[in-house]
Amino acid sequence: MNIRELLNERVRCAMSDAGIPPDLTPNVTVSKNSDFGDYQANGAMAAAKSMKSKPRDVAKLIVDNLDLSGVAEKLEIAGPGFINIHLDPQWLAKQLYRASKDSKLGINTKATPLTVVIDYSAPNLAKEMHVGHLRSTIIGDAMARVLHFLGDTVIKQNHVGDWGTQFGMLICELENNMSEGQQVDLALKDLETFYQQAKKHFDEDEQFAKKSREYVVKLQSGDPGILKLWQHFKEVSLRHSHELYLKLNVSLSEKDVRGESAYNDQLGDIVTLLLDNGIAVEDRGAKVAFLEELADKNGDPSPVIIQKKDGGYLYATTDLAAINFRVNQLKADRVLYFIDARQSLHMQQVFTIAKKANIADQWVSLEHHAFGTMLGEDGKPFKTRSGGTVKLIDLIEEAKVRAEEVVRQKNTQLSDDEIQTIAEKVGIGAIKYADLSKTRTNDYIFNWNNMLSFEGNTAPYLQYAYARICSIFRKAEINIDNFSYNLTISQPQEKALVIKTLQFSEVVNQVSADAFPHILCNYLYDLTSLFMSFYESCPILKEGVIEAEKDSRLQISKIVAQTLKQGLYLLGIDVMEKM
Ligand code: ARG
Predict the structure, then answer these.
(1) What is residue 1's predicted lDDT score, i.e. its pLDDT?
(2) DSSP character for 301?
(3) Ligand 1 midpoint to CA 123 (Å)
(4) Which residue's C-alpha comes closest to atom 8 of ligand 1?
(5) Buried-exposed string 82-115: b where 16+ CB fall within 10 A, e elsewhere
(6) For residue 315, which atom of ligand 1 is closest to its CA?
(7) Exposed (0-12), middle (13-18) or buried (19+): which is 343, by Cβ within 10 Å?
(8) Residue 319 CA: which ligand 1 atom is closest?
């Protein structure tokens, strides 16, 4: 149980003992200002309103019944009826010490873990991954880590675009290259150029275009030769993606890939099901679901085509088959989609149909966690100087180069090898953190200087704080991993820092429910800032500090470091002992 839950529980008991109706809640929150306690119970006001008595009287009634002995050192009633709770430093010290002994830092894992399917990254394999794939990949991966950490069974699904008419053209191009004696791998070395070549041929060469269309038909009817080429193309393209995942420290692997093509043989059944239960109807040769639930302002239902007149299936049909698989085979309780906001209507349509057709029963939670666009300095979608899409690989390389510069300036004592390793972690960390720390539903401006700064809410700031703590231990010639000492809290900065550290559990649980990783980022930033002020006002290795105090402060620092490391790990960001 975390602090807030514990206090809520105790105040609820007090309210019940005081005869306050059970539908009235304690409403315990973290105080904004420690002068007003560490936590506050704000439920007295609403209770008084409903009981038609004075808020301060109700607050007094609650306090009289409230047993927080050993937990709080002082309770006071303030303002219109707030109950300010000042926690007992002894108790806090014990909580934090215990948390540090726990491999999960005292985090509340879930009492009833869920099976959660997470759909993220999902690039279209026809092209090379570009910055447009970054947000889904990074945010989805952070959520996979968070939910796994809390004990859920997480099943990652990389719903890659590996099917569709584009593949006819690509296979045709590949075949041409091979007849000229090129190796497949070599031909596809630069996927972007390859795609552009194919597109050029398709647009300019009538023969080529005709053949491409034939290949689409052949692919769909399962022609072995064409299938083999398609398979080959897919493999090479996926290999490109997995190289990037590795560089980005993203946990997706080959076994998480289940592309659109995996659902091909179930699409017919989905259409039949929807026709049978009247959700879809025939409309000018096509099969369409008209959704009253999503009607526009004129009252016209929202049309979703599930099969075209020529028999072809659509993006929505595949997504319905995927839901069927995820819910009925993988047994998902929750399915989370990390796809940009432009696909919101599509997701709503698919979810509505899935629920209506009972492909997903009422207990399954289908969640589209949308995000905004990554913008350049000019406020327009992020592009290269010449206006092209930025390849992900180029972005990663640039991050490393820029990070190296910054790291070199910051610390002149490092060897070249050390700088390389650090620059990689700082560069990747910076890109990821810049994204994760923004409220995901908004667009955000991509800015190298901000994200690589050692000040402010950035990855380097947090990574540096971690390295700083490690360096304190090095200076003290103490092995941080084996160090363990009892805590005492005497200074206000210590108390504030300890309380913040203990709130890690609350924060991670909140992120798991709402899928907003920026909450975790803000937390880690606050934690680091509190550590910095603690470090300034509570000397550790300075002469004159008594041994017990030094060890206690080292112990606090150690737990802060553990929390930073764990928190950043959940965001997919590495720390290092030196930087
Ligand atoms: N491949 C799609 C795209 O690039 C994203 C797929 C997202 N996942 C899904 N189940 N629709 O836009």
Answers:
(1) 80
(2) P
(3) 7
(4) 159
(5) bbbbbbbbebbbebbbebbeeeebbbeeeeeebb
(6) 11
(7) middle
(8) 10
pTM over 0.90: yes
Pocket of ligand 1 (CB under 6 A): 119, 122, 124, 159, 161, 319, 322, 339
**Separation of CA 398 and ligand 1 centre (Å):** 27
- Ligand 1 atom nearest the C-alpha of 339 is 7
Distance CA(223)–CA(220), nearest Å, equals: 8
Which tokens go with 380?
Answer: 């327009």
Residue from 152, 142, 151 nearest 104 by CA:
151
Best mutation site among 339, 348, 353, 371 for ligand 1 pocket (most ligand atoms within 8 Å of CB):
339
The amino acid at 265: D
Residue 11 CA to residue 28 CA, distance in Å, equals 8
* 497 bridge partner residues: none
**Cα separation, 77 vs 75, whole angstroms:** 7
Query: Which among 75, 27, 24 is positioned nearest to 49, based on CA atoms?
Result: 24
| Per-residue model confidence as pLDDT tens digits over 182-236 | 787 777 888 888 999 999 999 999 999 999 999 999 998 999 999 999 999 999 9
Name the phi and psi angles at 336, rounded to 5.
-105, 130
By residue count, the chain amounts to 579
